[in-house]
Queue: 3 jobs
Job 1
Amino acid sequence: MAENQFVKGTESISRFEIKRYGYTLSFEISPDALECYCFYEPSAIGGTPLTNSELLQHLAQFSLSESIIPEALSTLLISAVSAKPVSRLLLMTGTPMIPGEDGQVVMSVFDDLAEKEQDDGIEKNIDFRHVQSFMNVEAGDLVATISSPGTGKPGRTVTGKIIPPQPGAPVKLQLGQNVRLSEDSQSVFALDAGRICLRENILSVEDIYEIAGDVDFKVGNISFKGYVEVKGDVLDGFFIKATKGIKVLGNIGVCTLESDGDISFCGMNGQGTGTIKCGGSISANFIYDSLIECAGDVTAEVEIRSSIIKCLGMITVNKGGLTGGEYFALAGIECANLGCVTSLRTRVVVGVHYANLEELNRLFNELKQLVAEFTAAAKGSVDMKEFAQKRAIITERTHEVRSRQYDNCNPKVNVKNSLFEGVNITLGMISDNIIEERKGPLSIIENTIEGGFRFLGMTPLTFKAEMIEQTFVQQHMLEQQKSRLNFQEEGS
């Protein structure tokens, strides 16, 4: 070890004393050798006071080589000339060493729930439902980078010795599930989609998030790339977004749920504003007053009431009724009761892709607006060729939408118990109101021969309406052929 290097802990308070015919001067050095204090006592019998040149000689004698504090020097010399004592005056300071920064784990992903700062500087309302962070990643994403510990900067004591810097501590990081470390040990990458979790120096990507109780102000809103399971309820005003699915063992209030996977829950009362967007299928005990958009099937065990449900699969109510509201199902509807004895309006649209229906409505409105503008325009001010081209484009788009076909399309409604008066049913392009109550079990399909609906004994939704109606069409054709043969025989 170099002689001019300070060793911490090997030195204590050092004191040096100089006695002269006019004064006594002492220096005291702190244990860390970063501070030098001076003591001055003028002689009682007279003599020459301390001068600046003498002070510098005394400092050099004890190897006190660092810069003197100008204010302290002035105070000491003035006191000496005035024959006043000085006690523990901080005369010199060394340069402390700067320890190296500890190694750090720097996350490379931001919170999905964090609100973006506004450029205009307007103060934003605090969202008390944003309780925890959800740093989500996809497979292959950079999760975090690991910075090396710093070396620090050396210091210097008042005697000129070097104080070696203390290096920073390296990161104590363990890799958990679904992450890998790069070859240079500086980067961590995700092996699967999920949420970044760092617990007790263990970094992992988790794709299952369990909530032991309710989703409330303690848990907050959830945005998770994975599967979410809630053991309790989801209270009003909260939302859950999970890519791989959501399971709620309790009930859902006025909330928003969104997932690319399946969603299941006990019950939901959306009070007209609660919404669900589901890329898979939905299963529940009951659904009230909710707005639902689903790419798969919607199944309720007990009842669906006063809701708007749009799905590309089947809507099924096993035990109870489908009452009030509007229901769009591409692959058919089955329930115990359809409608109710009161005047509560119930509408079902079956065998139609709800997005196509919405697009057709937009095209119809575009055409209506185009014709209205043409009619209201002054004579001769409208380019007829341009008008005809625009109308032809809308007509062509309309034909394209109507020509779309889907393998699971099934314009069929099954009612196990009662079909009530007043229900509006649309099967494909045919729509009508039920004018009298009918008892089930029955299936309703389109009557392509006579028009309107065909009411039959109930068959499973797996038996498509098109196949059933084809049987009636073939039978009708056979009867027509038989009638023609009989007519020919009678004529001969």
Job 2
Amino acid sequence: MAVGVFDSGLGGLTVYREIHDLMPDLPLVYFGDNAHAPYGVRDADDIYDLTCTGVSRLFDAGCDLVILACNTASATALRRMQEGWIPEGKRVLGVFVPLIEALTERQWGDNSAPREVDVKHVALFATPSTVASRAFQRELSFRAIGVDVEAQPCGGLVDALEDGDLILSGALVRSHVDALQRRMPKPEAAILGCTHYPLMADEFQAALGEGVKVFSQGKLVAKSLEDYLKRHPDMFGAGEASEFLTTGDPVSVSDQATRFLRREISFSPA
């Protein structure tokens, strides 16, 4: 009954944590492609190939359903994967849709026509590749009209967080928020479009001001997954054990993950 969680590095652990806390009895197999992180500066074909390789490993581990807990992979590779790569009986889901459903106050599976929503000015903070893909704007256009999205590529932030440098991370958050607000002075909502960024949610909120509602993905993805599994119990895979897999050095990645998540994490070679 295992479910897979894929990420280019450690950021997906923020999604893993929320899924585990909501469904503690659900076996989760986490795959971190740490040897090739970060994805946010790679080209689309490279991201696609690396994502397919990692997801295939999760299928081999007994996961019929895999969550791409990586916005860059969700934005750049998911649609292409869904159009012809995913094997019959398997499913791969991204992390954008639950967030957009929350932003537009839609229920899961509401496929009605796009409509006007209360929020008109949205700030998107994401990796350069995610911003370049315009995947967030595309998915939003399926559900809402009249929403102005200003996207800010947050170069360097993932690297700083993976290195555990919170001082540099805080400085980068303030710099990126300042850059965005020069183009959109008064956003009503802000999207943290990378699963690393919830670690800096308080810093984003402080830089944006209390009047801006900040959306991050962990809890939203976990609740959407819980609802999905209730409706699709056939998507529980054959795997029975939780494990953490990495393409990087397991000892180094385990140490980084333990600091990152502030709980003991032990990775094995993928």
Job 3
Amino acid sequence: MAVGIFDSGLGGLTVLDAVQKRLPDVPFVYYGDNAHAPYGVRDADDVYDLTTKAVERLWDAGCDLVILACNTASAAALRRMQESWVPRDKRVLGVFVPLIEALTERQWGDNSPPREVAVKHVALFATPATVSSRAFQRELAFRAIGVDVEAQACGGVVDAIEEGDMILAEALVRSHVDALRRKMPKPEAAILGCTHYPLMQDVFQDALGEDVQVYSQANLVAESLADYLTRHPNMIGDGTGPGFLTTGDPKRVSSRATQFLRREISFTAA
């Protein structure tokens, strides 16, 4: 039995780590499309094609349920996939909704009309593709009214993290926060809309100030997945996991992943 976790690169390992801690008895298969990372600078059709190929590979590995632990894929491809591509016996879920539910303090499956919420000014930090999709704003509008969202495209951050250049990543984060503050001087909350960004959460928090609540996705997705599998235990596929697949160089990706998670990770070719 296994659940698939997909990301364009290594950022989804932050989600994998959280769900493994929350669901230690559920095996997972992780797929990193490192050969084509980052997705954040690609157009929607390209992201869709790459994402569907990756999801099919995870289905082949026995994962009937796949989590898109990639905000760009969730923003640019998920709705299209769910509407016209995913077969009835499979499920593909994204990472936006658990975060928005936490922000708006709504329970999973609460389909009541959108209402006013406590937070009025929200900063969204995400990849250029996620920002241009406006998927976050669309999902938020289903649940809340009167929320001002200012989005900041954080070019270069994912590349720096993937290359292990954390000094450059920190400099870029601080520059992007400064740019956001010029547009929204006093955000009340900040959304880290990329699964790479939790690796820089302390830098985001320091740059934004302690009065800004920073929402990161990994633990929220883990809780949402645990709830989903309690209600749909049949969606744990027949894969044997755990496993790590990559379209990149397995040796190089394994080394970088081991640094990220601080435990031995061994990828094989997808």
